[in-house]
Amino acid sequence: MTALAGGISKMMRPMPPQNYPRGGYSLEVSTPLGQGRVNQLGGVFINGRPLPNHIRHKIVEMAHHGIRPCVISRQLRVSHGCVSKILCRYQETGSIRPGAIGGSKPKQSTTPDVEKKIEEYKRENPGMFSWEIRDKLLKDGICDRNNVLSVSSISRMLRCKFGAGNGDEDEDDDEVEKREIEENERRAKHSIDGILGDRCKFCRV
DNA sequence: AGCGTCACGGTTGAC
DNA sequence: CTGTCAACCGTGACG
């Protein structure tokens, strides 16, 4: 399902006659960042950014109490499509967290095989430079010219693997989430949380 | 009326 | 350091 929602094939719709008002489809709300928007339900959101954690929590919590998605949507002022998506994902993964945004997949050459080889090189010769590793990958036929890792990728990998202390491995999911919430709070001043807070201060409807 | 789905404009972050 | 690009975001509209 996620696969579908994720959009393997975002096929052309039969008849989408420009539903979107170009250049901003919802009211803009003035914030220190100028990013906040107001949706049809009057809720504030930041286009392109995930809803704040506490809203997500609230959604699953309410659903847990048997409150219907449409009610949740209205009450939290979040579009029902979003409520549906979050609930759906929660059911599937058990997590309320948004997916990893941004970044790009490691190049296809970053296979476990290549990774192992690099580790091996480095173990055999800790003083080896990234460009030397790159050369050796080519020479040993691990990669070819088309898919060989860039020097900076290699050095990044080395930094991750050998550089910064490699202590804690499996972190408790709870722990991760807790830390995330903390971070969220710290960020709140510059995020939708802050905006929402601001908004509440000014217009308590 | 409620819900699933998806195009859209947007942001992010590894490369 | 900067640009590119593919991942994800929530909204809004359709069915």
List the helices and strands and how they pair.
Layout: H1 2-6, E1 27-28, E2 36-38, E3 44-46, H2 53-64, H3 69-76, H4 80-93, H5 112-124, H6 130-139, H7 151-163, H8 173-187, H9 192-202
Antiparallel strand pairs: 1-2, 2-3
Helix pairs in contact: 2-3, 2-4, 3-4, 5-7, 6-7
This protein binds a DNA duplex (15 and 15 nucleotides) through residues 4-7, 10-16, 19-20, 22-26, 35, 37, 39-40, 45-51, 68-70, 73, 78-85, 88, 98-107, 150, 152-153, 156.
Give me the CATH architecture of the domain at 37-93, please. Orthogonal Bundle
Quaternary structure classification:
single chain
CATH C-level label of the domain at 37-93: Mainly Alpha
List segments where confidence is low: pLDDT < 50 over at least 5 consecutive residues: 1-24, 164-172, 187-192, 194-205
Quickly count the helices: 9
Helix content: 40-55%
Main beta sheet: 3 strands, antiparallel
Strand portion, in percent?
under 5%
End-to-end Cα distance, whole Å, is 37 Å
Give the SSE order as H and E letters: HEEEHHHHHHHH
Q: Which class of secondary structure composition applies to the elements?
A: mainly alpha
Record field, number of beta strands: 3
- The mean pLDDT is 69
Rounded Rg:
23 Å
Please tell me what the overall shape is: elongated
CATH fold type of the domain at 37-93: Arc Repressor Mutant, subunit A
Q: What strand line-up does the widest sheet have?
A: 1-2-3
Q: Considering the protein shown, what is the CATH homologous superfamily of the domain at 37-93? A: Winged helix-like DNA-binding domain superfamily/Winged helix DNA-binding domain
